């Protein structure tokens, strides 16, 4: 296996504020908990992985390298330490680890946690300053979390799978372990919020909530229109994936860019006056799309992508893992390097990032000394980010959603727009709403901007820039997701604003990062689905790539969770003056780190495998009685397979070894489908759960809205209007419902007079003492 590169210098030089070394204990068998621990290890903190006798089963989960090490294990556990622990026999040693720790990451279900004395409330009682991050399928106290859950089950119950795939084919899980990565990012953000609270807190992350949070637009659309969105696929919408001479191309454009499309394709049929309006193009789509498909089939995918980008069209080509390994943008930014057998994959520039080897099974971590006793706190229910002032220049989704997450947990977020060019999301059409264009303000804008203040500035004028400088001087954070180069033209680039406020935390969320030959490209989430490699491993098999669709825009949603976590991390660690450069494309590619390492080591170019994943079989969705009704099943153990075989009346399969089940998927699928097709989805889930078979219904937006789980956990909020809620739960703090999104320029007078409504200066925040003597990150 290629050796990961260690270290990574900050592009800020010496960061302002030392940051303290966090001690993290990881007690997690699933991917999400291990990825969450990986984030801390990557940032240079001490992460001790607790493995059962014999080692974590993921160590040998296929595919593996020549030494039998799983690529997934290597990716998820780089830079950690390891200790072998039997939870029943080694409790004293575990207690010593926890006594010295700042954070515990666990994915134990409620029954197992209670049996071992590791339930979050008991842990917090025994270790009052320990932050506990619990990442399970349905939540720390939900008995359904006793059964192991993975991304397929989370994306099914969360409704995300219902939105991915072709309309007449089964729902799809996104390639890799996307719900696990989403849940890990949520857990990391929650840990930072907990560390801002006196004495820490318990963080409860449900993977199905994380998946539902990603798909928030479907819920809002259903509430507004009564329409239940479903899979739109790659060849039926306004944007499509077409075959190129050497792969696939994402044909992505806005109605006002039609002239550029005509110029790109250069075919007289597209110049027909009958195609002058978006409505007419939709009605005549079969005719002109055929022209586009014939044109694309003759040309290389990257050539078409580059030509389209030069015309300002946000096209993307489907990059596979071989493309990424040699990609000039990734090489220029050192996102992927394998010189002399060294690999480095860093999801952020601006903070030191490590990508070292995983721990060996033999090298156990030393148990550190306990923390010194610290004074207790009054435990006041104060919002974790109270006192933090954020200037939000984010537009549409990525930047604006990051600001919303910070506002939800107490930050004073000031949304800055131009009167001449407000956030385009204010008038963004709602799919399936006949009167969408006539709406005064889009409900999608409301969800992304609830709880913020709103002002207008003309940053093209000296007066506007002067006002911006006054705001920056008293702000803590700035967020922007402009096209690269815009901030310099407006005089709000990091170098300029650092002179105004050296302590400003500045987050740039761009398509491909702030440097490199493709930094100025234009994109939407669907563009990045393709360019990141995610689409190349999502799909039904040999039928071509699949994206998350314009209705989800998965990269935009994912980066907002990561961005909020980074900002909270810099606040907690007092890393002031930090410039965070996050490429949305690189971040999504980072979720495929195990496949990247596999390619660099073995030359394997992964292809879509439907819902099947290594280490589990059967692992798929199965049709139930009714229209578009499905249940997901994910078996990891022989016992689970035997239980499934007995339930579906296929006793002959019960004693077959796991490799037989994997090699004879067609026979297995036929037996399971014969059973599920005769039952409703609810009946299937009830009987599967009773038999102990890991399963979940594939929910639509309508079914999700009716499920009390999501209302109880406040994943969505009933307004009016209905809007997305919160991706996590804190035991000690319940955020209030956010106020409405600001009207354009609503708070101009107050903010320009120096007043920030609802803002409490951070100096009044209860001082949270250092959890333990720490060093620099």
UniProtKB/TrEMBL annotation:
Alphabetically ordered keywords of this record: Transferase
Entry-linked InterPro entries: CoA-transferase_III, CoA-Trfase_fam_III, CoA-Trfase_III_dom3_sf, CoA-Trfase_III_dom_1_sf
Compositionally biased spans, kind Basic and acidic residues: 745-767
Gene3D superfamilies per record: Crotonobetainyl-coa:carnitine coa-transferase, domain 1 (3.40.50.10540), formyl-coa transferase, domain 3 (3.30.1540.10)
Pfam families cross-referenced by the UniProt entry: CoA_transf_3
Segments of this protein annotated with the region Disordered: 716-777
Highest taxon listed in the record's lineage: Bacteria
GO molecular function: transferase activity
Family: Belongs to the CoA-transferase III family.
Protein name: CoA transferase
